[in-house]
Amino acid sequence: MVIKNPGPLAGIRVANLSQVWAGPHAMQQFADMGAEVIRIESIQKGRGVVAPTQGPAPGFANQEPGPDPWNRSVYFNDGQVGMLGVTMDLTRPQGKELLRKLVLVSDFLIENFAHGVMNKLGLGYEVVKSWKPDIIYVSAPGYGNTGPEADYVAYGTNQLHMTGLATITGYPGEGPMQTAINYGDPTAGVQMAGVILAALLYRKRTGKGLYIDVSQREAGIMCVGEYFLDYVMNGRVGTQIGNRHPYLAPHGCYPCKGDDMWVTIAVGSEDEWKSFCRAMGEPEWTKDEKFASARSRQCHQEEMDAHIAGWTRQMDHYEAMNRLQQAGVAAGAVLKNYEVIADPQHAAREFYQAAAHSSAGTFRHPMIGWKMSKTPGWIRRAAPCLGEHNAYVYRDLLGLSQTEIAELEKEQIIGTVPLGPNFLPSAG
Amino acid sequence: MADQLLAGYKVLELGHYVAAPYCGKLLAGYGMEVIKVEKPGEGDGARRMGPFYNDIFDLETSAPFLWLNTGKKSITLDLKTETGRKMLLELVKEADIVLENFAPRVLPGLGLSYDDLAKVNPAFVMTSISNFGQTGPYRDYKATEIITQAIGGLSYMNGEPDREPLPIGGNQAQYQGGINAFTATLAALLYRETGGEGQHVDISLMECVSSILENLDVAWEYEKVVCGREGRRCMGQAAWGLYPCADGWTSIVGGPARRWIKVAELMEEPILAIDEYRTYQGQITYREEIEALMKPWLISHTKEEIYHQGQAMGLPFGMVCDMADLLKSPQLQARNFFVAIDHPRTGPLTYPGAPINPEGAPWVVGRAPLLGEHNEEIFCGRLGHSPQELVGLQERGVI
């Protein structure tokens, strides 16, 4: 039972201009911890930037765009869980004034537009600092705000490759592979969230705000630092080893019973090798000289893997995993998406939590990657509909009158329905 | 000296390999004092992980160790001895944060659980990183990288559809653990500093992996779609993904749709511009045709040429950088991303610097410590032991 507490970050408010994944993922850490994260959009731009789910599925709740497709996007609704939503047209003075009023009651502002966008709108750090001198202003384009490639267009698809990680991802020696997720985004996102928390501690101590310029690429390169150092020391530029390990064997991914079912197995020591043989029922092949030591097992991996596959093919992946783990051998079923959501470990730790969305319906979403003993995080609300919290933010938080709000709606500075045919379910 | 974001805080790191050490590295870089507690004689297991400087085994020159432990101090303590345990508790009294990544049974087994440590310092924050978390049916299960990525749901979707699934290379689940620990620890610290209390932060690598599946897990919840492997093509379409080129691999993005005409122009292949090839659906249906049309241009240009020429047309092209490409990058050089760090055993070497480097409160650059390098500073200087006592402790294997 998740304790429904205010959360360790209750009382923190965020002016969140970020979009797609890196910034929103950073902000989910805050939302799940009780901060009030206000996602700022506009009816002029609507919600055009989303990715479809894979294959033929269109990317909408229950595969139906419905009368309000902008409120039913799987990508948006998953990425913005826990946030509030307002709209404001930042290209016009009345919209900029709304942002100013919001910034005055916020702890930090975050944006991940292409380099230069906020400056062109007259909403760069120097301007925002003139409104609130101790503002923490986070700007996170793909390649940073300085340098000869600052104006280059960065897509998440390329981040893995620009960080060097693709060079070490792939089947052994067969060249780099793409990954299913845009790994650079959350890697930068969670580190950004941490640095923002550090900046909040810094401001508490010194009273000073800060400008934080983030290059998502640089944040990602940290995760291959040891490979970079190997290059600097020894001249090796990186290669792919698949499911293999530099020195452990057996270490691989083996087919199990059923359609596209697999289990990963890693044997770490001589004792574990003996346990592994026992778990398999001491088959004859394990007694061959070729498999007597770790060194020689490494030299005969292909042959050994064929034998192991003969065993794993007889059972389903969870059975293989649990039998080996009971015997003290590291093994992990390769889980498909519906299996991850239903996994017993995730269930025991309440990792997937449901949220009810007024248009899309009730669905489960993953939590952030940590638990706290006294103030555990929890998913407080579903993603916002477009402009859903205009009334709360503008009337209750910022003190605008009903007349002022009606005027803003009439001028289309704020609203809840996108103008024009903007919602494009495809990524292009 | 410039102000640091996290100046004034003290961390005790009982970390080994990647996850807790990466968190400790970040905390040190942003200004905390991080004291690494290592096993006498052997130290952190990462010291034995290659590759080594000049490929010669040396506890002080392991590339993973040097990278993951910049900016820290090192003391040695045998936590299995009563004296070692007592000395640790003395240090816990002064610590704001204790960071560890042992298997969940280990520290409680040594009388060093969160509750044990909270007795000497009720306000501290303890962050524990483990493969599956401190609770649940898999709590005591073992894992390496390929296992946590598999059970977290990431591996299934990487690789070729008709071959075995792949992990992302290197130590990514462990890095995600360190990254989440960094943020969670600071959230707990901020809570404590604003009127709250200390507590135990519990990071599971499996959860870290499952938390970054980018809506591909909830694709099942929302649309009853199983997301599988697409090889080198992003979402199965042509012109979004990896392709061989003259000197390696390029990573192109032939979009958004309104920019597709630029791809035809760039690659000097007018046939590419036809309507059928412009849409997402068309780029799936006709992917082989499109790829055949792009191939001559791609294979005759270098990855740098493709990257810069594509970007000049406003196309979000990238490239597959290897480690040499990173060092050469004019963008990374211009932003002073790399730093030189000297070390008694390797001399000065180039390292990546900070993930994020705020103006006004910059990242602190410092080398990894030698094993037990700060025993005297900490045990004599802070705990008041005499140098002779240290010799005795060393002889008994306590330090």
Explain the overall architecture.
The complex is a heterodimer of chains A (428) and B (399). By secondary structure, chain A is an alpha/beta fold. Helices cover 36% and strands 13% of the residues of chain A. Chain A has 17 helices and 12 strands. Chain A has helices spanning 22-32, 74-79, 93-104, 117-120, 125-131, 156-162, 184-206, 216-221, 225-234, 270-279, 294-299, 301-312, 317-326, 337-342, 344-348, 390-397, 402-410; strands at 13-16, 36-41, 84-87, 108-111, 136-139, 210-213, 251-255, 262-266, 330-333, 352-357, 361-366, 370-372. A 6-stranded parallel β-sheet of chain A has the order 3-2-1-4-5-6, sandwiched between helices. Chain A has a 3-stranded antiparallel β-sheet with strand order 7-8-9. The radius of gyration of chain A is 25 Å and the shape is elongated. The model of chain A is unreliable at 424-428 (pLDDT under 50). In chain B, the strands form 3 sheets. A 6-stranded parallel β-sheet of chain B has the order 3-2-1-4-5-6. Chain B has a 3-stranded antiparallel β-sheet with strand order 7-8-9. Chain B contains 17 helices and 11 strands. The mean pLDDT of chain B is 96. In chain B, strand 1, helix 1 and strand 2 (33-38) form a beta-alpha-beta unit. Chain B is of the alpha/beta class and 399 residues long. Chain B starts with 9 loop residues before the first strand and ends with a helix. The interface between A and B is large, with 163 and 159 residues. Strand 12 of chain A pairs antiparallel with strand 6 of chain B.
